[in-house]
Amino acid sequence: MTDDDARLAAFFAASEPPARDLAFSAEVMEAIARARFQWETARLGLFSLVGGLVLWAVWPSLAPALAQIGGGLAPAGAALVATAAVLLLADGRAMPILGLRS
Amino acid sequence: MNPAALDATLIRAAQGGSEEAFARLVDRHQQALRGFLRRACGNWALADDLAQEALLTAWSRIDRLDEDANVRAWFCGIGYNKCLTELRSGRRARRREADYQSSDQRSPGVAPEDRLALEQAMAALPLEQRAVVALCLAAEFSHADAADALGLPLGTVKSHVTRGRARLMEALGARDDGR
Q1: Is A14's CB within 8 Å of B108's CB?
Q2: Which of B73, B78, B79, B64 minimizes the C-alpha distance to B11?
Q3: Which of B43, B45, B48, B53 is nearest to B130 (CA)?
Q4: Chain B residues closer than 8 Å to A18 by CB
């Protein structure tokens, strides 16, 4: 290696970043997490918008049908909710949440 | 496990959605990518911004990468495109200038005159040639890997290496002559 080669190598070596840079890697992963969150939020927003538009479009024909079957399903719905509540309480997982058991 | 096999394993895992695997790829190759961008754009803060953007793009395109691909070259290729776009657009130019002015602090192992002469010579090279020099002379990429990373024909890379090296040596020689 000539002297000029060594000087050139030293010049390049001076701009070499550290082999490990946890701060930089963490910043990159944070940026990725942010981008993923923004993407998920935008996706869910779009789904909600499309769902709302579809519901708005079909509501005139859906409303009478729902009103018709709603009356008949109400007792069954109430029974289902009551059963679910009993099962949760019996399982014990809901007790601490409700403050009934620590 | 050899580095290429480890990269292949990490690529597979990252393609399956593992952010941890991608984080390890970042950790393994950030030095090469940032070093390349520092030399290609001549500005460290801008280079780190571009490296981060390049890695974000890489994450979004990881499913397009072959398992046996050269990750380092792939990252540098994406970084080069970011650099091209950035330097052409001229955004953040003011900050870039400020960074050049503060660059005296950061080359402890190099004679200030050498640093100045080589920085000027690097800045005077066309961007494409500078990128080739940064990969082949500074980061020891093979000509084929550099051609692959930058999307250039192999012959162009070889000629850029020869001419770029000559220009840098000329800068050092001219400085010596002026002593």
Answers
A1: yes
A2: B64
A3: B43
A4: 31
B106 touches chain A (CB under 8 A): yes
Quote the tokens at residue A54. 């579809």
Instruction: Let me know: does B6 contact B67? Beta carbons within 8 Å.
Output: no
Which residue range(s) make up the domain with A70?
3-98
Q: Give the Cα separation of B165 and A61 in Å (integer).
A: 76
Q: Report whether B172 contacts A9 (CB < 8 A).
A: no
Cα–Cα distance between A31 and B48 in angstroms, integer? 13
Q: Summarize pLDDT for A34-91 with one digit per residue, the tens.
A: 998 999 999 999 999 999 999 999 998 888 888 888 777 888 888 999 999 888 877 7
- Structural tokens at position A36: 């993923």
> Measured in whole angstroms, how far is the alpha carbon of residue B100 from the centre of its chain?
17
Q: Say whether B71 sits in a helix, a strand or coil.
A: helix
Contact predicate B134/B148, CB 8 Å: no
Disruptive mutation site among B22, B114, B135 for chain A (greatest number of A CBs within 10 Å) = B114
What's the domain count of chain A?
A: 1
Task: Give residue A1's pLDDT.
Answer: 67
Q: Tell me the residue length of chain A.
A: 102
Which of B18, B20, B22, B26 has the most A C-beta neighbours within 10 Å, making it the best mutation to test the interface with A? B26
Q: Is B55 an interface residue toward A (CB < 8 Å)?
A: yes
- Nearest residue of chain B to residue A23 (CA atoms): B27
Here the tokens at position B35 are 């070093």
Residue A4 with chain B: CB contacts under 8 Å: 169, 172-173
Cβ of B52 within 8 Å of Cβ of A4? The answer is no
pLDDT at A100: 65
Is the pLDDT score of B145 beyond 60?
A: yes
